[in-house]
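> example.struct
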């Protein structure tokens, strides 16, 4: 396990997000008997609009009560104001890791990277409508952020060293 990935996962968890680690995006090939991995995402996270954690309340009379303080920097102000479900796609770069995931940074002349982002959005289940899934994926590839009537999506990077990304939105370092 990468301690930096663990840190980001726990940081998101303690701020009300449910997380999935090392999500593999598969690329089926009808000519091969296996389904190879197309790419991988370090952490996927979702925070629902009414999520809160109040440990100790409602338990045994002598239960230890403690408070989990959220870090306001991780919250998407627009998602909170509009009551949106907030999705985070996090890439963690530490030490001598190779460059950023090409799915997000490289030109996509054959549409392969867009297909990978659509796969991810479809798996997250924010919409069952294929044109909406495609629009969210295009918006994410272009802007690293997409807001719909009910959801907010952000691709973010956490890095121990500066990256050469054209990142625009949330960054947790």
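> example.seq
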């Amino acid at each position: 396990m990468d301690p930096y990935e663990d840190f980001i996962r726990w940081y998101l968890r303690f701020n009300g997000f449910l997380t999935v680690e090392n999500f593999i995006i598969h690329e089926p090939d009808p000519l091969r008997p296996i389904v190879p991995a197309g790419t991988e995402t370090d952490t996927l996270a979702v925070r629902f609009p009414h999520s809160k954690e109040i440990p100790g309340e409602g338990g045994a009379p002598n239960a230890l009560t403690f408070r989990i303080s959220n870090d306001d920097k991780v919250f998407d102000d627009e998602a909170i104001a509009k009551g949106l479900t907030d999705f985070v796609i996090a890439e963690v770069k530490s030490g001598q890791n190779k460059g950023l995931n090409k799915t997000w940074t490289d030109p996509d002349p054959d549409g392969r990277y867009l297909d990978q982002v659509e796969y991810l959005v479809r798996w997250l289940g924010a919409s069952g409508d294929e044109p909406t899934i495609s629009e969210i994926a295009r918006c994410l590839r272009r802007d690293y952020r997409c807001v719909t009537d009910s959801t907010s999506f952000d691709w973010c990077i956490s890095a121990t060293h500066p990256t050469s990304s054209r990142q625009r939105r949330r960054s947790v370092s």
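> remarks
Confidence is low (pLDDT under 50) at residues 165-173.
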